[in-house]
Write a structure and sequence with these properties.
There is one protein chain. The chain is about 10% helix and about 50% strand. The protein is mostly beta strands. It folds into 2 domains: about 110 residues, Immunoglobulin-like; about 120 residues, Immunoglobulin-like (Sandwich), CATH 2.60.40.10. A hairpin with a 6-residue loop joins strand 16 and strand 17.
């Protein structure tokens, strides 16, 4: 009976030691598509590492200390990571190179160390997020109205391969979001409107001048004609985009014109 209780006590002791070595925090690691990222292990010099097991959605690598003064022995355990894994000789930090979007996800390192009490497993968890470097954003515009020397324009900013965690800001007027409406007059024709797109690894900007926005809008106001068939007044306006020629549109007045006898 005494021997049975001894085994139970030893099992509890081992469980407690492993629990003390566990780290439930998840560290966020940001990577850039096509570049490298490092997972820091924070292993102290006094720790005697036996091996380190890396896993994600698949197995990743198995690491053992090298002979005295040599690099660690690294066995890549999944083909997705072939020729992309490197382990620091100094502190066992793991590096993944030539990052892919599909590398994003949760990674776990089980660090097995030897102590006077026996083997202890310390677990580190990481959330890897991979982002593209943003290219130059594109600004498109539409001329809404031109009344009383005021040009009302809506600007839309976008980037290629739109993805999560992309934010936009405008200067002026300092508003957030990829769409902004401005009211422009000839008095501020020297203004330049700039859109900046951001993500966790990069930012990029594009600008458009006020003269481009409302070019000709005050020289050629809305044209006014009459429709011989409907007997209504027709107001012609122009829709403008930065990368396309102006397109004509029409607004019909609902009040019929009186016939001329």
């Amino acid at each position: 009976m005494a021997q049975r209780y001894l085994w139970i006590w030893l099992l509890c002791l081992q469980t407690c030691l492993e629990a003390e070595g566990s780290d439930t925090d998840v560290f966020t690691v940001i990577g850039i598509l096509g570049e490298s990222v490092t997972f820091p292990l924070n292993i102290e010099k006094s720790q005697q590492v036996v091996n380190i097991v890396w896993n994600s959605e698949t197995s990743v690598a198995f690491v053992m200390p090298g002979d005295s003064g040599t690099a660690p022995k690294v066995t890549v355990t999944h083909q997705n990571y072939n020729d992309r894994i490197n382990v620091s000789r100094k502190n066992y930090n793991l590096e993944i190179s030539n990052l892919r979007m599909e590398d994003s996800g949760i990674y776990k390192a089980d660090i097995n160390t030897k102590t006077l009490e026996g083997m202890i497993t310390t677990t580190r968890r990481y959330s890897l997020q991979v982002f593209r470097r943003l290219g130059k954003p594109k600004i498109t515009q539409s001329l809404m109205t031109s009344v009383n020397s005021t040009c009302n324009v809506t600007l839309t900013c976008s980037v290629e391969e739109e993805e999560e965690n992309v934010t936009y800001s405008w200067s002026p007027p300092g508003e957030a979001g990829n769409v902004v409406r401005i009211f422009w007059t000839p008095d501020n024709q020297e203004l330049t409107y700039t859109c900046t797109a951001w993500n966790p690894v990069s930012n990029s900007s594009d600008s458009i001048s006020a003269q481009q926005l409302c070019a000709g809008s005050f020289l050629k106001p809305f044209s006014k004609n009459s429709d011989a068939i409907s007997k209504k007044t027709i107001y012609t306006y122009v829709m403008v985009t930065r990368d396309a020629p102006p397109a004509e549109g029409r607004i019909y007045d609902e009040i019929p014109q009186s016939k001329v006898s």
